[in-house]
Amino acid sequence: MTVTNASSRTWELLGRGGSAANEHAAIRPTKYNGLADPHGAEELGRGLAEGIRALAPAAIVIWEDPEDVALGLIVGRELSLPVIRAYDADGLVGHSAGLPAAPRVVLVADAIRDGRVVRAAQALAEQQGGALIGTAVLIETPSLRESGAAAGTVIALVQSADDADGAA
Amino acid sequence: MIDWAELGMSAIAVPDARRDRERRLAELGRDVVGAAYLRGDFVLSSGQRSNYYFDKYLFETKPGILRGVAHFLAELVPPQTDRIAGTELGAVALATALSLETGLPFVIARKGTKAYSTSRMVEGEIYPGDRVVVVEDVISTGAQGIRAADRLKEAGATVLGILAVIDREQGGPEAISAAGYTLTTLFSRKDLGI
User: Fold this and answer.
1) Would you say residue A165 lies in a domain?
2) Minimal CA separation from B48 to chain A, in Å
3) Which of A133, B52, B93, B130 fits a disulfide with B157 by CB distance 3.0 to 4.6 angstroms?
4) In sequence order, what DSSP letters do the residues of A79-145 get, joined into one string?
């Protein structure tokens, strides 16, 4: 597996959350779990928030997973933005309350493993008259790269040649 | 739908039982549409926008329709099937009804991912070598059916095919075929006149 752009500190934090092994510079087939390492999640979340800040979104969107809720909450707090949880409601995309009108949103996840998540976030924002202006991830995967323009501006701490297994 | 003229048969030559079956299936289709077809601006979990949506819960929660759907789906279950499988939550009622109709046991395939590997991804009894039919409600891109079938294969089962009530004709059959599975549906969007 090929990875780039990873500082040793980033690898250490990803490893503490269970999604990467610093010493081998390889992404494990598991989801990053910031709940297992709140201090590390805080640091990684702040890193994502700094990357997102220039996009000036109106809201952060996360997809389904509690682990991404934790990451999104840190980003939302840093940028003083609402965090909207979107989810698969048995065929339809549902979302939690608080999605602004005509929202410019950024999707936050540990990694995108299925391009439909990006398309769903984009369609949700567009349905409300807004747009998905960016996607911020800890690990950039092929599924995200293949999403192309739909993902908006991509902010990633590390890149992977493979889709790490797991949710979202 | 069978084209009797193409088969060189007139409608009069169609056996009464078969004609009655076609009539009852068409009636069931109208009932499904009447109960579950909604117009609006919907965002599908595939990421597609649509101006219509089949709310499966609106037909699955009506016993008369559910019984009829299970009756016709049962005709499509291969005789060598050991077990039915339904994906949570939408297909559980279908799997239950089909299980009652056929007498076959069923399992529930969870939608969650391997990230939650400590929990069972298939609920109920399943054994390596079991021949399983996956039942689905509405097929759009086919992604959910494929995930369920993959999960069952990982559990050691042989997936005989995927049965669905409605094909929205949005690439689902092609994707399912490309994934190595067969799909049989009771109704296509076209069948339902939508």
Assistant:
1) no
2) 7
3) B130
4) HT--EEEEEEETTEEEE-S-PPSS-EEEEEEEE---HHHHHHHHHHHHHTT-EEEEEEEEEE-HHHH
> What is the total count of domains within chain B?
1
Query: Which residue range forms the structural domain that includes residue A103?
Result: 3-160
Q: B16 in a domain, yes or no?
A: no
ipTM exceeding 0.85, yes/no: no
Residue of A nearest to B40 (CA): A127
Cα A8 to Cα B34: distance, rounded to the nearest angstrom: 60
- Give the domain extent around B90: 56-188
Q: Does residue A45 lie within any of the structural domains? A: yes
Beta carbons of A118 and B47 less than 8 Å apart: yes
* CA-based nearest distance B71→chain A, Å: 24
Per-residue pLDDT of chain A (168 residues; tens, 9 = 90+): 334 456 778 888 888 888 765 445 555 546 888 888 999 999 999 999 999 999 999 999 999 888 899 999 999 999 999 999 999 888 899 999 888 899 999 999 999 988 999 999 999 999 999 999 999 999 888 889 999 999 999 999 887 656 655 444
Asked whether A102 and A129 are in contact (CB, 8 A), the reply is: yes
What's the pTM value of the predicted model, to 2 decimals? 0.81
The CATH number that applies at residue B175 is: 3.40.50.2020
Q: Does B51 touch chain A (CB under 8 A)?
A: no
How far apart CA B88 and CA B148 sit, in angstroms, is: 10
Instruction: Say if B182 falls within a structural domain.
Output: yes
Does a structural domain hold residue B77? yes
Report the domain count for chain A.
Answer: 1
Domain-embedded: residue B132: yes
